[in-house]
Queue: 2 jobs
Job 1
Amino acid sequence: MIGVVGSGGDVTACLESLEATPGVEKAVRISAPYKFVSKEFRKERTVIKVGKAEIGGDEFITMAGPCSVESEKQIMETAEAVAAAGATILRGGAFKPRTSPYDFQGMAGDGLKLLAKAREATGLAVITEVMSDQDVSLVAEYADIMQVGARNMQNFALLKVLGRCGRPVMLKRGLSATIKELLMSAEYIVAHGNPQVMLCERGIRTFETATRNTCDISAVPVLNELTHLPVIIDPSHAVGKRSLVPAIAKAAVAVGADGMIVEVHPCPEKAVSDGAQSLTIEGFREMMQMLQGYQKLWKLERQSELAVA
Ligand code: PEP
Ligand code: MN
């Protein structure tokens, strides 16, 4: 990609002469500072295939599982249950970004192995967080999707290495990041060679304390105007409280997100992290049932959009 700066006629003339140059397929004018991820660069949605799921396609995708992988029993039981309830991707953190250094930091490599075992048993694809550029190749051996946590959204060294990891990446919006900053971080990954990026709204910091974060639901239509990348909502980290999760999941479907990522635990009161916001298995089943009608509407809307395109 060649960037051309300037205004008015200069740029137009420059684009025309570039386009007339042998070997140039097309010259595209992109005014946004993020080029590859901009809708100006590519109109059609990016579709990311992992296992049975097509993220950005014509199904609303559900990723579900515990905040942290804790034991074989816990991850296997959760994986079987979320698969039976309609999830196609299993979440579970093996490297955990904890505010306190004294809190559980994750099972690391052993956790990754358990996730792979759960994938084998259920057919679910696996999404898990990578916290450091040094862990990228290890995590990529086990994960189908590499998760970049909110706290690492601007870890540019990590983003650059993820550009070469050969796996799709889910980039979570930073705690106080603007949408433009989120897109610029996505641009890092794509510019370094990896076009398979999805974005995740997981709530942002505001003055409000009734919820853990404030879910910026309008980020979905804003992002849909600005980028072709899929957008995922994380209702669990957005609200921080189990009873509020289904309402935000419903909003995610209604607002046209491509999918959601939800925390589920067989015994939330015993969870080593994020128990308060984790749905029980039964709660997850009920939520998935409640969402069925909304998901049908979602599908009709997406199909008519694809038909027009
Ligand atoms: C998580 O998904 O468990 C997590 C730590 O999320 P976030 O980076 O959005 O806080
Ligand atoms: Mn969590």
Job 2
Amino acid sequence: MKYEISRHGLRGEITVPGDKSISHRSVMFGALANGVTEIENFLRGADCLSTISCFTKMGIHTEVTPSTIYVHGNGLRGLTAPTHILDCGNSGTTTRLISGILAAQNFSCSLVGDASLKKRPMNRIIRPLSMMGADIRSTLGNDCLPLRINGRQLHGIHYQSPVASAQVKSAVLLAGLTADSPTSVTEPYLSRNHTELMLGTFGAKVTSEGTTATIYPAEELYAQKITVPGDISSAAFFLAGALIVPGSEIVLRNVGINPTRAGILTVCREMGGDITYENVTQDGEPSADLVVRASDLHGITIQGEIIPKLIDELPVIAVMACYAKGTTIIRDAAELKVKESNRIRIMVDNLKLMGADVEETDDGMIIRGGRPLHGAVINSANDHRIAMSFSVASLNCEGETTITRKDCVSISYPRFYIDMKSLVNAGQDYGKEF
Ligand code: S3P
């Protein structure tokens, strides 16, 4: 790919697709509720479709119309034994959250996934769920998929999680929904809190104090009407693109800015990025329109409690850091090694191919910005966020860039290249008379 960037950079406005984390949870919690949950702006990416397909196999009826997904809930104890193996595709969120639900059912089932998902650690959920009395095991004995789960009555625990992971926290809280006593999870740093907020709206009693979330056993959940805000993790690519391409000015409409997710906004501003909010809404999951203008960026250190708030955005932050003056250090991000790919290794290898001065560390990377990048053949590792990050890197570099298996963006953002092209084209048309 070679984007023909005009001196006006990226221009125009787009509405990014619905938030992936919230879309998954809307279907899961809707399936467990009584009544019909209506979901608007649901993300129709492959990951969230994997979640729908798993629940369909457990007797949940979903109606899909162009604007809305209707989930006909069967109640907290209404799932039925799946007739087929549950295939979670590429989705870690589907696997880990659904495991918490399945561990408490009165039937047995098996979970499988694609080549990337099969390599991801599942001991992080097997351990706490087993502590709750669950019968869950990795059938190959390697702590990875396939998983076999024989559902049963669970008991409440207090779990001290070694990782700041919303997937682990959510699996345990979901298992706690029908346990015999309250269940709490304490994590080293606060991870995204969509499960806590959304289960609360569905009628469960969930409390949060610092980095501890507690769920009380529920009698029933109640169907909701949900409008999913735009995904900040998808907005991140255009945000980074507009900041690094001179002349740019774009508007990203209706982006979710939940503080446990919006670490990238803090980082961009600390790097000198010009981002302003308009039309901020505060109820439930907050959202805003983001106005982003090209900026002279400088390197910073990113570490500690902000890491879980921007974990999925670190690949594109690394790209921005290459275009910033000075050094950016990313620390405490070892979790990146167990995402859809080893994102530390893949980012560093690919950025080097483009001429960047970047170094891999045990738990992050060091990027010395300011060297001009050039086109290269990029190995996406079939990882959607790597493909999109390098599409952004290619905006501003000399020569052609080829990204292998670039269609993997359909996991979280099927229209990604169309939306990117529209901002590039609007830049070319900017100021022309028609
Ligand atoms: C997610 C949590 C994060 C994130 C993933 C979605 C969620 O994973 O990387 O894309 O929806 O709960 P971890 O919990 O493994 O950090």
